[in-house]
Amino acid sequence: MLSRNSKEEEKKTNNSQSIDLLWPEQFQKSDKTSPIKHTKKSIIDDFDLDKLFQLMNLNLRTISDTFSVNSILNKFTTEPEVIKYRLEIIEDIMNNPQLFKTLKDLLPKIEEMNRMTSSRAAKTSRLKKIVTKIGKLELYVESIKNLKEFFEQNNTEINSRGLKKLKENVNKIADSELFQSLVKELPKLKNEFEGLRSITLGINLDAQLRPDQAVLVSINDQVYQEGNILDKLLSRDSKQDNFKGISSLKAVSKGSQDGQDNTYLLNKSILQQLEKVMKSVIRSVAPRVTHYMKNNTQFILSLKPAIKFYLGAVKLIHAFQKFDLPMCKPEIAPKEKRICKIKDNYNLNLARQLNENKETQSESDEVVKNEVNFNNKGRIFILTGPNRGGKTTYLQAVGISQLLFQLGIFIPGSEAEISPCDNIFTHFPIQEKLKSNLGRLGEECNRLKEIFNQATKYSLILLNESLASTSPQEGLYIAREIISSFKILGSRVIYATHFHKLATNLDVLNENLPGDAPIKSLVAGLKEKEDGMPKRTYKIKQDQPLGLSYARNIANNLGISIEKILNNLQDKDKIDQEVNIEEIKSEKEKLEETE
């Protein structure tokens, strides 16, 4: 028994055991409601997160080793200290494979302890409850010992505050009088039930040969083995013969979930009989087990969500590093700076797809890396370029990078410095189910209005072909209204669009609108191939929109220009030879300049 002073010391130790590896101490009692709870669905769909986050699954063959996307997004935070806290822990795990293995080995033990807690028999049978508690204590002791052993062997390789606190708490527990006493007494507690290896039952059957009555004949310290009638006849070892059946061993069904089948009722009956026979043992063991359970196991059980998250995050990071793609620990900039600088950024979804389909991909299929640079010299970008030129891929890459950063996970890139945003808003094309008589344009505008109702200057807003459902004239007018409003608000915005004119004459908007950063033009690049045709580079860079020059280049190479068409028609005498083609070409170019 523990002395009064020892009990007080144990109380202090147990009170100090609480630790949250996801939230630093100063944030543990704060509201942890996800700031993106209202934008989750659009983010999940537009960033294709269901497939991406499958890479975090640990494949431990347990019921709860997979992740729901919502459970991951609930960890989104705007607090720089929380982001830093998590990044430090991930860096420790990344740098120490043995730590990854130790934590991964711990998860099945936690899962088994949880399973024991939820066992139906453990709730209905006092005997089963005690045996289950002893099993939990055994797993608990093993878990603490394994963690302590790891920290002793890798003392200098742990730098994160969270894991240092875990180490401190594990050492306190392992060195406490209560734990030392548990380690010594646990074998004795187990020994109380070691002799219970099998039982002998007498079963009476009813007229339909169903179990009708059962009586406990004996409690045995040996297990039953397979046998047959011949074994019984020839056996010379009467004691051993008692533990051989006359049939093969059959697994006992665990019964239905509602506990109404005969097997469940038989198991319950057996436990009740055992409890009566072992009453004195139960009376002796129960108080000791309860004493040790009172202040133990919960510490280990509480670690599961964080360990599972970190191991999944590291598995995600490793997946892309195996593809020879960079994943970096981003620097954290103050929220007020509203910056996002990423070198060699790329789209994780594209990288995943290309590496999953290596056998069928063409030589042109590659993961293209781009720069991201939101700062005082540009916070709103109009992204134009050819169809399938990488605009949507770039938007996704930026959004996923910001999201991972605010989950506290390494991001795609070789270097990064990012400010937290207060929310991520997306406006991607969807199969609209019209909710009113406003039409598609009305529905699009309503979605945009919802973004304006929630967005602040600290938000990240990604618009993908917004307003494409209306005419170019109407769409361009509304797009200018939106971009002008975002400039005044000060949000970080990328608008991928086919409205090339939106990205021209930006100097006029920048000079006449208030705001602390100008609007800039981004272009999905093209380069000319040997045959003169343009080729998509998927590189995104600051430049003037391609506009008519891009269309003219393609048309000329395909033989679709007014001069080539008219020359061909004259050659075939289909139009008057007196038509002045050069004059028509000149007038057309003047018209283009006025548009």
Structural commentary:
Helices cover 50% and strands 13% of the residues. The protein is elongated, with a radius of gyration of 35 Å. By secondary structure, the chain is α/β, with parallel strands linked by helices. The chain folds into 4 domains: 175 residues, no CATH class; 60 residues, no CATH class; 227 residues, Rossmann fold; 35 residues, no CATH class.
Overall mean pLDDT score? 82
- Output the strand order for the largest sheet: 10-11-12-7-13-14
Structural class: alpha/beta
For the record, the CATH class of the largest domain is Alpha Beta
Q: Estimate percent helicity.
A: 40-55%
Tally of separate domains: 4
How many DSSP helices?
24
Which descriptors would you attach to this protein?
single chain; 595 residues; alpha/beta; Rossmann fold; six-stranded mixed sheet; four-stranded mixed sheet
Summarize the structure.
By secondary structure, this protein is α/β, with parallel strands linked by helices. It contains 24 helices and 14 strands.
Write the layout of secondary structure elements.
Blueprint: H1 4-15, H2 40-46, H3 49-52, H4 69-73, H5 80-95, H6 97-118, H7 120-124, H8 126-153, H9 161-175, H10 177-191, E1 198-205, E2 211-220, H11 229-234, H12 238-241, H13 262-277, H14 279-294, H15 298-301, H16 304-321, E3 327-328, E4 331-332, E5 340-345, H17 348-356, E6 370-374, E7 380-384, H18 391-407, E8 411-412, E9 415-418, E10 424-427, H19 439-454, E11 460-464, H20 472-489, E12 492-496, H21 506-512, E13 519-528, E14 534-542, H22 547-557, H23 562-571, H24 581-594
Parallel strand pairs: 4-9, 7-12, 7-13, 10-11, 11-12
Antiparallel strand pairs: 1-2, 3-8, 5-6, 5-9, 13-14
Helix pairs in contact: 5-6, 5-16, 6-8, 6-16, 8-9, 8-10, 8-14, 10-14, 23-24
